[in-house]
Write the structure tokens for this entry.
Amino acid sequence: MSMNIRGLVASEKWLYLKKVVVKEDIQMICIQETKSNRIITQKCYDVLENNNMEWKHNVGENKEGGILMIWNGSRFQVRQRRSNKGYIILKRVYGIRKQLITVTNVYPGCSLNENLVL
């Protein structure tokens, strides 16, 4: 699932995420615009309700932007992680056939020059 959350500081947003994840049995979530300089590990665990949860957060600038990926580590064997300002890329093995797939979470800044580089 991918979602522009427009700020992930308030507890209500974390509760909303958890509700959607549980209802739809989501195993990976890509979130844009966290607007947070710090993500608390326990909140990521709470969203997936899974001790095998893994996550990666790239902070934005001046509490703008920011991206977060949370996934079930027992369902997705991550082989490679790459991240930089504005993106997170995971290469992972998925499914019975052990297919290698790539998942990318992208949220460019407001600067045209930054977007051209991205």
Remarks:
- The chain has one domain: 2-117.
